[in-house]
Prior knowledge:
Jelly Rolls; three-stranded antiparallel beta sheet; mainly beta; binds manganese (II) ion; 9% helix; 42% strand
Amino acid sequence: MNLEPTHPTGKGSSDWFTGDVYVDSIATRKPEPSRMAVSRVRFAPGAHTAWHSHAQGQTLHITEGIALVGTRDGTVIRAVPGQTVYTPPGEEHWHGATTDLFMEHLAMLEDGDGPEPTTVWLEHLSDADYAAANQHAANEPAAD
Ligand code: MN
């Protein structure tokens, strides 16, 4: 066994994120056939990803705040610490904080095959869609 090296916290690129997002790598990909990659991602209030999809899907485990996770059909899941959200391979989605709280989640995924990128980044989420997601989520009963 070995104690894994720690990595400096990275700042999420403004190409892919709106607002202040910080990423800590927890597990980096190991030699084949391993494909696992795990990061802790911290979003300042109001911060969120652009639209994107993951070749092999993604599991998000919420550890702080309230996570909003939205898909193209307008569905927004509101998830609290201890809950886990899964997006299947290729499903376009976004995730982020609410406007008033920091949010932290663990993001777990597997690298895709060959030249296919693990994550395909698309356009930024519109301000209107983000506002609607917050409004919608605020009207939902708290998750159990
Ligand atoms: Mn994602």
